[in-house]
Design goal:
212 residues; alpha/beta; Rossmann fold; five-stranded parallel sheet; 9 helices; glycosidase; SGNH_hydro_sf; Xylanase
């Protein structure tokens, strides 16, 4: 009888301990490349990332198509419900992948605000995260073809170098999606957006860094 009681005790104790262990929460904010075929689509890179990382992680997709980092851009991410939702999620890890739509001429005319606005976004999100939370800037995937007014030259010669400065000033790390995707132009049918296989490569590249 005593053995049975002891067995039940250990089952209840360790069972409740396992149940109480919270998952590591990851929030992904960005534009159409983050949103993918849909925020709840298993093909989107955030949901593929969650599948790779497994049950110890919970990954949420807060991407919104066409959105800019610039506050004075044509469609700022700042104005979207997903901005507030991402803050309320109180993620342990935040992945920021913005900047592609900022290369459009109507947005890049405010390029002097880019660094300031990016730092402001980091600070806003950091305040909402638990102590010890990690923020990563993502060096965006390649722009293989100017399309939708998105400009590869602006991305490569102006935005990517700015991201390095922003990361240094805010003490955050850059995760590179440019180099891993550069050999795979065939996975970008319109030169801008990766297909499902390309989104899978994104998820795999990011998972390796997060797991490490």
């Amino acid at each position: 009888m005593e053995k049975l009681i002891l067995t039940l005790y250990f089952c209840l104790f360790f069972g409740s301990l396992t149940f109480s262990q919270s998952k590591t929460k990851i929030a992904c904010i960005g534009d159409s490349i983050t949103e993918g075929p849909g925020r709840e689509s298993p093909a989107s890179y955030p949901l593929q990332l969650g599948e790779i990382l497994g049950d110890a992680y919970e990954v949420k997709n807060f991407g919104v198509s066409g959105r800019t980092l610039l506050k004075r851009g044509d469609f700022p991410f700042w104005n979207e419900p997903q901005f507030e939702e991402a803050k309320a999620y109180t993620a342990d890890i935040l992945l920021i992948k913005l900047g592609t739509n900022d290369t459009k001429p109507q947005n890049w005319k405010y390029k002097d605000d880019f660094k300031k606005d990016y730092i402001a976004l980091i600070n806003e999100m950091r305040k909402a995260m638990p102590e010890g939370g990690q923020i990563y800037l993502i060096n965006p995937v390649p722009v293989f073809q100017d399309n939708f007014n998105i400009n590869a030259q602006v991305m490569d010669e102006e935005i990517r170098p700015l991201l390095i400065k922003i990361a240094a000033e805010t003490d955050v790390e850059i995760l590179d999606l440019y180099s891993p995707l550069l050999p795979y132009s065939e996975l970008f049918p319109d030169g801008i957006h990766p297909n499902t296989e390309g989104l899978s490569l994104m998820a795999k590249a990011l998972s390796q860094k997060i797991i490490k």
